[in-house]
């Protein structure tokens, strides 16, 4: 047996309810660590709205370089009511994703037993897919500009930028994920989602690259959906999906739809992944300022983010134990919404941690 594994994890609790949910995630990680002989060395960083209001700084390049030394980053939430929209999103969250080249945003959509979905007649056997959202390109690159600003003839552009290499590396990750899932007994099907009927340049690039790469993966079933149709099928026939791969902007939109399908923001988590660098894991729900400090926010999304982090680090057994504990907890709590769980934030964290310890 190899000795105890040790991981240096940078923790950014961030704004609003971020610190509360991150605390529960750390509690669960610690429980998994004791059970599976893993130790975590957490270092907390105070990036977020409060720090920005005090210093006028989101994060510096030196700050980014420091974070790159960690095996992974565990993030709570970014967003502060006293900071103008866009400053923290672009200056902190997107800056972290871009400067660490976290080019995959991995967002599982899985309905746990006992969780209510708004989709009538659908259950856990129907809703178990994962969205690979391209995370550093497209409309998010900030290419574009404005002229004649403030006049009736103002022109503004924002350009969907992709090059072949960005598309290929995202597709590669997605095909490999489909292979992985097939080994785990899932369908092993990859659906490209885009808008080839209108985006005749950039969607066509994705489509051709996808078809070419598909030839290298004969064991993987492939499909293509237009983004608008995908929104219909995600609601009507979610069982058709296993792995979806989608550009940055469309992926942003459909993963919020996915979050609702799996029971809401209380459970939805994501990983910003650089397969050969530092990756960052976060609940995708945001800072929920009105629930701050009340011990009512659901920590399961942050706990799910912690689980994804362990899986990413190769700690499969610990990740599975957390998943089982989350599934168990979902059958115990009344509702996934903040203040409606029938338990407090810390009690839900205790329940998951307790189950992990007994696993
Ligand atoms: C998300 C968020 C971010 C995004 C915002 C806050 C910049 O909506 O993580 O989905 O658009 O990626
Ligand atoms: Mn979003």
Structure in words:
This protein is of the alpha/beta class and 359 residues long. It has helices at 18-36, 49-55, 61-67, 87-99, 164-183, 202-214, 227-236, 248-261, 300-312, 316-332, 345-358, and strands spanning 5-14, 38-44, 72-77, 104-110, 128-134, 144-147, 155-158, 189-194, 221-226, 243-246, 269-273, 279-283. A 10-stranded mixed β-sheet has the order 2-1-3-12-11-4-5-10-8-9, sandwiched between helices. A two-stranded antiparallel sheet has the order 6-7. A hairpin with a 7-residue loop joins β6 and β7. α1 crosses α10, α1 runs parallel beside α11 (345-358) and α10 packs across α11. The chain is globular. The two termini are 20 Å apart. 3-isopropylmalic acid binds at residues 89, 93-94, 252, 284.
* Distance from first to last alpha carbon: 20 Å
User: What number is the mean pLDDT?
Assistant: 97
The parts where pLDDT drops under 50 for at least 5 residues are none
Determine the fraction of residues in helical runs and give it as a percent range. 40-55%
| Widest sheet: strand ordering | 2-1-3-12-11-4-5-10-8-9
As a percent range, the share of strand residues is 15-25%
> Sheet bearing the most strands, described?
10 strands, mixed
In short:
This protein is an alpha/beta fold.
Based on the model shown, name its key terms:
359 residues; alpha/beta; 10-stranded mixed β-sheet; two-stranded antiparallel ribbon; globular; binds 3-isopropylmalic acid; binds manganese (II) ion
Write the layout of secondary structure elements.
Blueprint lengths: L4 E10 L3 H19 L1 E7 L4 H7 L5 H7 L4 E6 L9 H13 L4 E7 L17 E7 L9 E4 L7 E4 L5 H20 L5 E6 L7 H13 L6 E6 H10 L6 E4 L1 H14 L7 E5 L5 E5 L16 H13 L3 H17 L12 H14 L1
Parallel strand pairs: 1-2, 1-3, 3-12, 5-10, 8-9, 8-10
Antiparallel strand pairs: 4-5, 4-11, 6-7, 11-12
Manganese (II) ion binds next to α8.
């Amino acid at each position: 047996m190899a000795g105890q594994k040790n991981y240096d994890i940078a923790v950014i609790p961030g704004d609003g309810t971020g610190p509360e949910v991150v605390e529960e995630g750390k509690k669960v990680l610690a429980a998994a660590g004791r059970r599976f002989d893993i130790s975590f060395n957490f270092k907390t960083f105070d990036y977020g709205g409060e720090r920005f209001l005090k210093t006028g700084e989101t994060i510096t390049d030196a700050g980014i370089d420091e974070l790159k030394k960690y095996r992974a980053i565990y993030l709570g939430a970014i967003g502060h009511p006293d900071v103008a929209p866009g400053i923290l999103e672009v200056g902190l969250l997107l800056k972290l994703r871009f400067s660490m080249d976290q080019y995959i945003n991995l967002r599982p959509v899985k309905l746990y037993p006992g969780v209510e979905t708004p989709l009538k007649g659908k259950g856990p056997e129907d809703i178990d897919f994962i969205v690979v959202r391209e995370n550093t390109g497209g409309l998010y690159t900030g290419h574009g500009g404005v002229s004649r600003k403030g006049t009736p003839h103002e022109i503004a552009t924002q350009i969907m930028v992709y090059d072949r290499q960005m598309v290929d590396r995202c597709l590669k990750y997605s095909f490999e994920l489909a292979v992985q899932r097939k080994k785990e007994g899932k369908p092993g099907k990859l659906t490209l989602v885009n808008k080839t009927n209108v985006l005749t340049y950039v969607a066509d690039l994705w489509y051709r690259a996808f078809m070419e790469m598909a030839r290298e993966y004969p064991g993987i079933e492939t499909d293509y959906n237009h983004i608008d149709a995908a929104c219909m099928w995600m609601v009507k026939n979610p069982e058709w999906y296993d792995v979806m791969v989608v550009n940055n902007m469309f992926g942003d939109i459909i993963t919020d739809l996915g979050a609702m399908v799996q029971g809401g923001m209380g459970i939805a988590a994501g990983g910003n992944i650089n397969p050969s660098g530092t990756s960052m894991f976060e609940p995708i729900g945001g800072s929920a300022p009105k629930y701050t400090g009340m011990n009512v926010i659901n920590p399961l999304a942050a706990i799910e983010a912690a689980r994804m982090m362990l899986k990413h680090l190769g700690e499969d057994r610990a990740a599975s134990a957390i998943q089982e504990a989350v599934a168990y907890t979902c059958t115990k709590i009344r509702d996934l919404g903040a203040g409606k769980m029938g338990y407090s934030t810390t009690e839900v964290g205790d329940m998951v941690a307790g189950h992990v310890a007994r696993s």
